[in-house]
From TrEMBL:
GO terms for molecular function: ATP binding; JUN kinase kinase kinase activity. InterPro entries: DEATH-like_dom_sf, Kinase-like_dom_sf, Prot_kinase_dom, Protein_kinase_ATP_BS, Ser-Thr/Tyr_kinase_cat_dom, Ser/Thr_kinase_AS, Ser/Thr_Kinases-Pseudokinases. Gene3D superfamilies: Death Domain, Fas (1.10.533.10), Transferase(Phosphotransferase) domain 1 (1.10.510.10). The lineage of its organism: Eukaryota, Metazoa, Chordata, Craniata, Vertebrata. The keyword DNA-binding does not apply. Coiled coil: none annotated. This is Protein kinase domain-containing protein. The keyword DNA repair does not apply. Keywords: ATP-binding, Kinase, Nucleotide-binding, Serine/threonine-protein kinase, Transferase. GO terms for biological process: positive regulation of canonical NF-kappaB signal transduction; positive regulation of defense response; positive regulation of metabolic process.
Length: 403
């Protein structure tokens, strides 16, 4: 497969040094490393162990990501194959070598602020996401992101936003035999039509997801997974939580938000329409963007002095963590019997699983026994936060259990 990928760069351990774990995403650990020949740092996003470095789907999606690199889409340099330091598995693993975005994710930013970002910054974020989505949709042929959510939006030193990780949901899900939503994305950001088995993803899929992300930016809240499960029945996040009197243009974005998550995909605006609205709103506040960014950076930098890991890398208790934990407790018996990717879910939990517990889980012969150990140790002791992270793992790898 490597010989067929002349337009892609393959990177291995001999050209990467100074590895540092900076976080754990939905697909695995994320490292910061220095590329010795290039003399600058990159991000290495590891994929779950069920993704082989020679996977045709991985290389195909990596090529698409490389072609789509732009001012508003994170640059992908190539595919990593090797054994990262501290890895728990033997043999080569797969990953993507990407542009390093030092300010982490939009999700972490929203979690770290007491309220929405200052309005000029909120409006710029909304505009840059619309531009990134529109860039993908206007390529020839058009590209769909299919997993647009705050954790897949990365921020640079100046809090400019770029889309990331489009296509990765398909790479990892193809290795999982269980049913997923038709788009392969995350349940909370999936449009109602995608829950149909015959659904084929369209551009309107991303527009719906963008509407949910826009709601999070404007309210500093995250969509409850309990609401997400009722999306096919017409439920949406509470739009009234956007106080349109607080800033000029908020009413325009609130109206756009509700159009984006319309239950009829044909009635949703195009990505170009979204960009026009967000451009108009942001232009009214552009003069104040510098002060808004400096205000947020000052807050983040002051808080980071007390954190051993950058806030963007931390797994926090989110606003919907309690109902997620309750779901994990209530459906314990079903989850133990039905989960088929026990080790991948354990990997998803990362350092939340004690090394001794990890060895115990690995030694068990069946998925049922592995998950049973996880319940009686890590989930029992870790409380709401760990159970919410476990739920996230189910959402990625065993989404049919959440239906």
């Amino acid at each position: 497969m490597l010989s067929d990928s002349s337009t892609m760069v393959g990177l291995s351990d001999d050209v990467l040094q100074n590895w540092k774990l900076i976080g754990r995403g939905g697909f695995g650990a994320v490292y910061r490393a220095t590329q010795k020949d290039w003399h600058f740092d990159v991000a290495v996003k590891m994929l779950h162990t069920n993704t082989h470095p020679d996977s045709e789907e991985l290389w195909r999606e990596a090529k698409n990501m490389t072609k789509a690199s732009s001012q508003f889409v994170t640059r992908v340099f190539g595919v990593y194959r090797g054994c990262p330091p501290g890895g728990r598995t033997t043999g080569e693993q797969a990953g993507l070598v990407m542009e390093l975005m030092k300010r982490g994710t939009l999700e972490a930013l929203l979690q770290g602020l007491a309220g929405p970002p200052p309005w000029p910054l909120a409006f710029r974020l909304a505009h840059q996401l619309a531009l990134g989505m529109n860039f993908l949709h206007t390529m020839a042929p058009p590209l769909l992101h299919k997993d647009l959510k705050p954790s897949n939006v990365l921020l640079d030193d100046d809090l400019n936003a770029k889309l990331a990780d489009f296509g990765l949901s398909r790479v990892c899900i193809l290795k999982n035999s269980r049913k997923t939503t038709g788009g392969g994305g995350t349940v909370a950001y999936t449009p109602p039509e995608a829950f149909q088995l015959s659904y084929r993803p369209r551009l309107s899929y991303d527009v719906y997801s963008y509407g949910i992300v826009l709601w999070s930016i404007l309210t500093d809240a995250f969509m409850s997974s309990l609401v997400a499960l009722r999306v096919p029945h017409g439920d949406r996040p509470p739009a009234h939580e956007v106080d349109t009197s607080q800033a000029e243009g908020l009413s325009d974005l609130s109206e756009l938000m509700e159009k984006c998550w319309d239950g009829d995909s044909a009635r949703r605006p195009s990505s170009g329409d979204c960009s026009e609205v967000t451009s108009c709103v942001f232009s009214r506040h552009g003069m104040a963007i510098r002060n808004a960014v400096d205000q947020v950076l000052s807050k983040l930098d002051s808080e980071s002095q007390t954190l051993p890991i950058p806030q963007s890398a931390c797994i926090s208790v989110r606003s919907y963590a309690v109902p997620q934990a309750q779901f994990v407790d209530y459906h314990r018996a079903d989850i133990i019997q039905e989960v088929s990717t026990a080790m991948a879910i354990t990997e998803h939990l990362g350092n939340m699983v004690h090394p001794e517990t990890y060895s115990q889980i690995q030694a068990k012969d069946t998925n049922q026994d592995k998950i049973r150990v996880l319940y009686t140790t890590t989930l029992h002791a870790g409380g709401v936060e760990v159970k919410a992270a476990f739920y996230d793992g189910l959402e990625i790898l065993e989404s049919s259990l959440l239906e």
